[in-house]
Structure formats: C-alpha cells, structure tokens
Amino acid sequence: MSLAAYCVICCRRIGTSTPPPKRDTYWREIRNIIKFTGSLLLGGSLFLTYEVLALKKSLTLDTQVVEREKMKSYIYLHTVSLDNRENHELHKAVRKVLATSAKILRNPFAAPFSTVDIEDHECALWLLLRKSRSGDKTEQLEAVQEMSETHHWHDYQYRIIAQACDPRVLIGLARSKESDLRFFLPPPPLPSLKEDSSIEEELRQLLASLPQTELDECTQYFTSLALNESSQSLAAQKGGLWCFGGNGLPYAESFGEVPSATVEMFCLEAIVKHSEISTHCDKIKANGGLQLLQRLYQFHKDCPKVQRNIMRIIGNMALNEHLHSPIVRSGWVSIVAEAMKSHHIMKVSHAARILANLDRETVQEKYQDGVYVLHPQHRTSQPIRADVLFIHGLMGAAFKTWRQQDSEQVVIEKALEDEDRYTTCWPKTWLARDCPALRIISVEYDTTLSDWRARCPMERKSIAFRSNELLRKLRAAGVGDRPMIWISHSMGGLLVKKMLLEASKKPEMSTVINNTRGIIFYSVPHHGSHLAEYSVNIRYLLFPSLEVKELSKDSPALKALQDDFLEFAKDKNFQVLSFVETLPTYIGSMIKLHVVPVESADLGIGDLIPVDVNHLNICKPKKKDAFLYQRTLRFIRETLAKDLEN
C-alpha cells in the first residue's frame, strides 16, 4: 500500500497545473520510484523464500519414525545428559503417557476408546495388558500366554508391553518358551566403579562386608582364603582345592594337576555359600551385590563357570520372596530370559531355577542350590503326574553323568575334563519327549575320591550327612507330593537308600515313602566296591575320602544300610531294576579296575541286568534306541502306568 501511495503522489505531482519541471527532475522522480520499488520487491522475495524454506524444514518427517511411532503414548529415550528445563519437559511427557495408560487400564473398555487417543489396531494390545492385570489368576495367566505366542507385532508394540507390564507378567513371559526377547528392556545402567577400584576389588569388599555368623567351618575357611589371596597367581595355585554345590569336580583334569582359578572365582564360591543364608542375602542386596554381580556376569561372557556361579547366587537370593522386587528392578529377569534361549543345558537349567524361584504364580516349590529341573523348564499346560529323580555318584554331576555315551572309549581323564564339552543330557532330551507328564529333577552335590583333593580340610561328609541334606532340599522342591521313581548311579544309589530310610523315621517325610513307586540302580555297590579296596591299599597315594572308605566291603555302615533297606524295600513292595557293568574302567593310563562287580550290584530284590560297558558308561546310553535307555523307559512307563493314566 505504501508503494502504491507513493506512486500516486508522484503521478499527481507530474500532472499538476504548475509549470512543468525540468526534464532532469522528471527522470529523477522516476528513478526514485524504481529504486524504492526494487528494494521492496527484493526484500519481500528474500523474506518469502526464507519463510517457505523454514516451513518446509519444520514439516519434514522421518518416514521410518512415522511407521514405527504410531502410538502417541510411546516415546524413545536416548541416554543423553539433560538440563533442568529438558527434564521438566520430559517429566510432563512421561506423566501424559502414564495418565493415558492408566486411564485405559483402570476403566472398563466400554467408554475409554471414545476419549483416549489410541488407534483401532492397537486395541488388542491394550486389552491384553488390561487382562494381564486382572485379579482373576486364570485370566492373567491366559494373557501372558497370548502375549508369548504373539509374533506379528511391531518392535514398538513389544516395547509398550515391556514398559507397561508388571513384574508378574515379566517373569511369566521369561518362563514362556516362545516369548520374544523384545518383551524385556535392557537392564538399567550400572553404577560406575569407584575411582582406583576394579571388579575384583569390589567383589572382595562385598565378600568382606558379609556377616561371619551362621556359617559352618568350611564357609569360614573359604571366605578367609578368598579374602587373603592378594594375587591371581596365588589364587590359581589353590583353585582346585575347594568348591561348593557340586561344580568343583569339573575343575580337575587329572589326579596330578591343580588347575588355575581367579580371585573372582574364589570370592564367588564363598558368596554362593553365604547366599544360602537369608540374612546374608539381604546384605548382598544392600551392598550393591545385584549390580556388581551383573557387571561381573557381563564381563565374563566367555566364561560359563563364572556365569553359572553368579546364577547360583541369584537363584539362592530368589528363594527369599522379599528380594524378588529388587531382583526384577535390577534387570536380572532380562538377563535370565536371554539365558533361557541358550542351547547350553547347564546355562538354561540355572536360568530356569532362578525363574522358577521368582514365579510364585504357577510354582509353589522352591529349588535350592544343587536341585535342577530338567523338565519342564518353562510354563506349560501339560499336567505333571509324577516325578523322576536323578542322583549321580562319586565324582559325578547333575548334567554330565547323564550325557549320551561318547563314541570313543571313555577314560577317567576325559570324564574329568571341562564339563562345558558335554552338553547332551538324555533325561532332558529323550525322556522328557517320551514322557512329557513327568517332572524330571537332577541333583548335584560334592564328592571326592581322596582327602588329597578335598575342597575343605574340615569337611567330612558321610553318606548319612549327605542324605539328610539332600532330603531336606528335595522336600522343599515338592518331592513326595507326586508319585516318583528314583534313578541313581554308583554311590548315588546308597544315598537314595539312606534318604528313604531316614524319611521313614520322620512323620513330615511320610509322603516321600508313600509316593515312591520304584528305584533304578546303575552299578550301585550295595556290598562294597573294588575302588575302595584299591584306594585303601595305596593310601599313601590317594588318601581315600570318607565317602570311599564307606564303600569298602568291610564297612559296618554299608552292611547295616544294605540289611535295613532290603527289609524295608520288601515291606513297601518297591519296584526295583538294577544294571551292572561287566567291563573294567580305566583310571589314568595304567590302572584298570572293575569298580562294581556283579555280586555287589545285586540288591537282593528286583531284576539285575549285566551290560557290556564300564562303570562310567553304565548310565550313558549310546543312542535312543539302545537297550539301556529303552529298558529304563519301559520300567518307568510300567511302574507309573496307573499314575500317568489318572
């Protein structure tokens, strides 16, 4: 308008009745009009261009983000430092998200979708979330199962569930076989290490902070040993001398070597024993143990032994229900859920124990250290009708004892090699598939051939002591609530006999006796073993342990156990099946020994079947259709026929 007005004024001046101006004045006015008009046109063009570019920039959207971010109630947060103003804006956004989800989850679904900003295709997701928070346990379990079976969602939908679900749902998803790992958020960032500190040093400090009360002599000994070691080289010299919970044997590679071990392993083994005491678990949690163990777990990704010991500690802490919330908040469920996807039987079994102890919705039993469920390791709709318990023998383990037979001749050195090489476990693979209605449990405990290799100089564990310890752990795991069969190898069979005799004397253990249907013995030395005689004869070399001494033919304890159990088993009409080796076993490169002769493996009742294998392979079928496995399977099916039908 100003430009037009100026032009009009100039034209009027030119056309007035006053004498015409000189020619140069006329052109001067024209030039002024052109200059002013040009400036305005140029400035306006620049302004409009700037505005158009700015508007275009503000309206440009990342199409990938649009596809991923269809829900306004979901936000991705990057781990960057925020000032106070940004924090305030973020808190406002989070409050809005929480208000929206709360509105959906609290109110009936008849009304909210008319007012809540949510797209139609997202209704099923939020309905499942609401169903998972139902007070009806059946509905809640169904919602978790539906979530675990959903595999067509987008990434952001899994993340919505991960952020909005409660701990019960999270644990249920972790125990569901088909669950997507996107249901689990990464663990929270770990606190920084103290200045001039290391993981090893903080682990020592954690161990030193634990009470020295309520400990047996061996735990005190190992705690002191771990704290006093000032270097890993010195710790390595002691590494093969001690262990808890049955994982020590794999450290040994032969009778003449002491393997290396780190200071972390010393401390972890001691903390495992501390974690069996509830008040000590509280201290571990209070002193940042959950975060420190997580850091150590991630640091030792390539060391399964370290990771398994850490999971043993977490599994022991999970026995205490008041610690479930801190365990979940610290991110351990996400770590264990990932471990459940492993192909390594031992790793999965340790993870399954942790989750079973955390899952109070579908599991009533509690699994203490050394008691592992091989089947079912996930939530299942399959009713469990009976239990089968596997008890290993001298120098055995919960997993490697029951592996498939090696293709080459097995010698004692190979049997004692690193257990990580042995991942096959026929009770978990073959038996679970053939008898899905069984709960299959394998037990682990420490044994040793000689005091020279004993882990604790104060430890003298007899068969009677071990049987009471195992019986207590198995009863806590619900053993005795269902019909059951015991399967044992070597000295494990003596433990089974002693456990049943001890249970018969305790009224609270009566269900263990009443529900025992049968027993399978793999080369159990009911009347003594040549190994004990051999060890005694060269005691200057082996220094036989108490367990081995109790296996000698002239052992009064062994004879009394056999006489008492034979009478007891006949009275209870237990079904019994016994296998015995006929081939000698190589011990080292020079010694060949028939560990359990046929006459010693004869209990006096039931069938006794000689098999052309050695002592180590008597419980290791070559393949699924081998006689050893098929005869074992037939006995289980026949003995539990009525129970499995019901």
TrEMBL record:
UniProt topology in membrane: Single-pass membrane protein
InterPro entries for this protein: AB_hydrolase_fold, ARM-like, ARM-type_fold, SERAC1
Localisation: Endoplasmic reticulum; Mitochondrion membrane
Keywords: Endoplasmic reticulum, Lipid biosynthesis, Lipid metabolism, Membrane, Mitochondrion, Phospholipid biosynthesis, Phospholipid metabolism, Transmembrane, Transmembrane helix
SUPFAM superfamilies noted in UniProt: alpha/beta-Hydrolases (SSF53474), ARM repeat (SSF48371)
Coiled-coil annotated spans: none
Domain of life: Eukaryota
Single Gene Ontology BP annotation: phospholipid biosynthetic process
Alphabetized Gene3D superfamilies for the sequence: alpha/beta hydrolase, Leucine-rich Repeat Variant
Predominant cellular place of this UniProt entry's protein: endoplasmic reticulum
GO cellular component terms attached to this protein's record: endoplasmic reticulum; mitochondrial membrane
Family of this protein: Belongs to the SERAC1 family.
Function: Facilitates the transport of serine from the cytosol to the mitochondria by interacting with and stabilizing Sideroflexin-1 (SFXN1), a mitochondrial serine transporter, playing a fundamental role in the one-carbon cycle responsible for the synthesis of nucleotides needed for mitochondrial DNA replication. Plays an important role in the phosphatidylglycerol (PG) remodeling that is essential for both mitochondrial function and intracellular cholesterol trafficking.
Listed name of the protein: Protein SERAC1
Native species: Prolemur simus
